[in-house]
User: Fold these one by one.
Assistant:
Number 1:
Amino acid sequence: AYLERLALGDVTPSELNDIRRFAEDKFSLSLPATFEQRSDQEQAELLFQALHRPLRICGVVPNTGEPGGGPFWVRHADGTTSLQIVETSQVDTSVETQQTILQKSTHFNPVNLVCGVRDFRSQPFDLMRFTDPEAGFISQKSHDGRALKALELPGLWNGAMAKWNTVFVEVPITTFNPVKTVLDLLRPEHQPAPSARLDDG
């Protein structure tokens, strides 16, 4: 309904405030510092641009120390912030404050994703418009026992979805059964369930 109102261009200052609160509260959207100084029409255009995006709802589990990234607020070059999924390789751990934030992270990478890829008119979004081509990173790999560095292109959720609106939802830890090495397959959660025993009455 908000996008429909904004698209019509007939929004009162009170409605603009409501839409702004919705954007900030529900999606943790960060609007430009000059937003308050803009005209009502400019504010409406900025809010439309901020909300008229694909949506991802990410089910995340509490951080239990598994290797990998997680959900974070990220500050961009223009001073705005957004919710992003960040891999450990993307964090400059030589900076103490960054290392501290990483260590204090409460949740792990998403284990479930629900995606909204059509707009309020039921038209499909051009998903390429909502990627961040600068989100590639260098990761540590190994091959035949040799340590290698690999330049990785933006991944599914940390670059290809960088400009999507994002909501993080905690889901039960039972939905997360990672397999990083072959030995992880020996964990209890990866063992077959016990056979059912029939009762002859």
Number 2:
Amino acid sequence: MVDFQSRNTRRNDDDDDAAESSDDGTAESTPDNEDSTDAHHDDDVSQVGVAVVTVSSSRSLSDDPAGDAVVAAVEAAGHEVATRELVTDRYDRVQGALDNLTGRDDVAAVITTGGTGVTPDDVTVDAARPLFDMELPGFGEEFRRRSAADIGTKIIGSRATGGVVGGTLVFCLPGSEHAATLGTDEIILPELAHLAGLAGHNTDA
């Protein structure tokens, strides 16, 4: 039988200190944690060169709200628009433009608008995917998740996607101004400098 009267039921000082430090339910940050966070961003690029491509047979660069929205967001974030192009919605034209742009030293990311739906002339995703060395499925998933709040189940018709071609990031967005703003401002730009560094296309040099 256990003698509860003789048993030491007091916590030692170390236990008291541990309890006090966790009263608020949060762990204090440590130098190790801070070092880990800093290391996570070691490869970040301070300024990313971005190519903005509008895929359309009906738009012009002077009448391109989606492209304008991407350019404004990129520049507001402190990055550089290396070039802006308009490409007709033909498979070979889109793929040729992407192949050319991803080979440029001053372009670390390409953002396209238009051609991500399900009509016969929506060829952007089909033209881009064969070029991908790796796909970034999380981009399309997150874009559709956020867009669903605005357009509901219509989002299943969007094939927005992202990938990496020879160290250059490629993001394919729908052609509406709202979709281009959402995808660029809320998803691409917060991670652009980090992903560009990880992909190995550093434009700081």
